[in-house]
Amino acid sequence: MVPLLLVLLLAVILFGAGFAVKILWWLALAVLVVWLLGFVMRSTSAGGGRGRWYRW
Length: 56
What we know:
The protein is mostly helical. Helix content is 70%, strand content 0%. The chain has one helix at 2-40. The N and C termini lie far apart (55 Å).
């Protein structure tokens, strides 16, 4: 009975980790898209140079 429970526990952990990794990949892709859009949509500053679109 214990080996069966350990296998089921391992399956649940691996399924949860796989789901979390998939969510993290989608999140990383969204951040990359926003970051790339920042280069395209940045405005010019008062001095004539290119400014940043974020305030970090």
